[in-house]
Amino acid sequence: MKALDRKLLRDWRRLAGQAITIALVLASGVAVFISSLSAYQSLVTSQHNYYRESRFADAFASLKRAPLSVAARIAEIPGVTQVEPRLVYDVTIGVEGASLPVSGRMIALAAGDESQINRLHIVSGRGLDPANPAEILVTQAFAEANRLGPGDTISALLNGRRQIFRIVGTVLSPEYVFSTGPGEPLPDDKRFGVFYVSREVLAHAFAMEGAFNDIVLIAAPGANMPGILSALDLMLDRWGGMVAHDRSLQMSHRFLQDELRQQGTMAATIPPIFLLISAFLLHVVMGRLVTTQREQIAALKALGYDQEITLHFAKFAALIVLPGVAFGVASGVVLGHVMLFSYRPFFRFPELAYHLPVWAPVAATAIALFGGLGGAIGAVRSVARLRPAEALKPAAPAAYSARFSKALFRVPARWKIAARGAGEHPLRTGVTLLGLIVAAPLVLMGLFWTDALDYVVDVQFAASERADAVVQFVDPLPARAVEEVRRMPGVLLAESLRIAPVRLRAGHLEYQTSLTGLSDRTQLRRLLDDRLNVVVPPKQGLLLSRRLAERLRLRVGDLVGLDFLEGRQKRAAVPLAGVVNDLIGLSAYMDRAAMDRLLQEDQTVSAVAVRLDASRADDFYAATKKTPKISTVSLRERSIRNFRDSTGAVVLLLAGIYVAFSITIAVGVVYNNLRIGFQERSLELAMLRILGFTPYEAARIFYSEILVEVGAAIPLGLVAGYFLVRLLLLAFQTEMFEIPPAIAPRSYFWAASLVGGAAIVSAILIGRKLWRQDLVTALKGRE
Known about the structure:
Layout: H1 3-14, H2 16-54, E1 59-67, H3 68-74, E2 80-86, E3 88-94, E4 102-109, E5 121-125, E6 135-139, H4 140-145, E7 153-158, E8 161-172, E9 192-198, H5 199-205, E10 211-219, H6 225-236, E11 245-246, H7 251-291, H8 294-302, H9 307-343, H10 359-384, H11 388-391, H12 403-407, H13 413-424, H14 426-464, E12 469-477, H15 480-486, E13 491-506, E14 509-518, E15 527-528, E16 534-535, E17 542-545, H16 546-551, E18 559-564, E19 571-580, E20 588-591, H17 592-599, E21 605-612, H18 617-625, E22 630-635, H19 636-680, H20 682-690, H21 695-732, H22 745-771, H23 775-779
Parallel strand pairs: 4-9, 6-8, 14-20, 17-19
Antiparallel strand pairs: 1-10, 1-11, 2-10, 3-4, 3-7, 5-8, 6-9, 7-8, 12-21, 12-22, 13-14, 13-18, 13-21, 15-16, 17-20, 18-19
């Protein structure tokens, strides 16, 4: 074995603690990068494969009623390759033992269950038997939430008549990866499901023999989709057609894209920050570590070594970097599988296979090697430029300056020494400050998600949507429906709502959403501005969610085109009167009387918001189940739970991972800087001991400098964390949600405590060496 290789092994054994902590810092960055990126790529790949294999539809349209012959004409539209007319109805579902109201969407399948568009994937059981009309298929999410399976029975209220069905299979559908009921902003698998029966069942129940009320189609690659949708609207207009739309407005796909966009944003922002910061800290720490061997490099150069020195320290850096990268990649793969497993209850794909792009570990390794080797080789070259005789001497101390003595005249000697040490070693101080300043915002960025989700719940579900339940009707009803709901058991207050689907137009921009009519006397649905002040709909004009106004590039006073998508599909142009702060969804609002005038209606009701007597809530739920005109009942408490389960669970998992790795970075940086600082100041500490200082007193002086640095870094890091959170949220907003930069004081406290605790742990690890210092060895100096 060569002499330099023996030295390499001795250095590794001597610096094992530092090498391990450096490798852990690097592994943290690599693991976050690999896990987030691979989980996101796995979701995107699974979605793409599922859509392709199931032939997910490109366009969708609903209507009142049309003969099947119309579907043949739709198939002749240029660019359309396949159409499938269907029967689709929202119905009330009866599940044995369920106290809460349950609703569902019932879809008729063609004979023999041979749908060629939106193909079903059977998870358990079998398909429908055309000869048995009492059989039904249930989506897997609803079946699991209600503990149902093949052989169980459910009932459905079909056009006022209750029918019993036997479940023969559970299925997945690309059309309902997320199953969201009418009027519900989030999926609730326990209270809403999708069901598939034979066509004869729905046709007979709703008198739709030889007709359809819903159609899906597949377009040829590269087809003119806007042209297809326009032709479809024109063809279905006389049959009471709603505005046709493509995948971008399909609820499940829209929700799925928002979730994927969130994951993509987190994968594209935070993990690269972790990796680059880890590589930079590695670069600096490796440089300092090599610099501590200044005399050894000079001695080797004097003995005739040249390029071998650079290669030696490159090997030393690689011995630290490569295990760190390997451990980081392995940890990232494990965490990626854990994240993917946590996604399974939310992303209903037949197969959620793990996929790690080849370039990801290659890129992580390249960045890590660049940082580690660059720091080591740069330090070697800076020392190698000196003459051996000069390099063999310890580096000259920083020039003395009386500024510290004058500025710190009344400061105790312990803190004066700490301040002078920090000021006279800017590189050492800068690295420690940088490591802590970087760790603090990363920890804060992980902790703030809990505060943000709590804020959304408090504002959206407590201050704005104050109703305990919202009763949605199958079709708009006369005003007397409010009185009927008010007479239901347990109802303390009932307020009517008029909700209509609309398309908003602003120049070439448009957006399809719902328009809600509210009166100035409404108590259970309040609109709020950015300062949480109540906004009353003006007598004239339109109110929009702030994000929707920004999307359409509208300002107050601009005219907004308004196309109603139900009934006689009236059109109007109204001015934008203001914006409101909706944290979930993008909506439009108008004074109730003004909306009635536009629709030429007399207080028609789409829904009723109610406040309930909690002790009689079950009686109210039972009454809604017996009312055929009610399609769904939205419950505020369920909405809060669904929000926390669907959005909070995934986000908080990632946040917890980021916090753990941020603390690892803080420990690694502080430990290495303390260890290197101890090596650099071993002579000073030994002289203090010789002069009569106890180990405890010497340690207080040594630790004072890191206390000064931690005390300065944490406040700066928390300020940086606030701005980092705001910057992150600019890229994190989605169409369905707005996450506010709400950071509670407790999160600042815990971020400071965790980073400070990491510094304390590092100090304890170094304490043993300080207590066991060999004074004779430390006092030996080279002439």
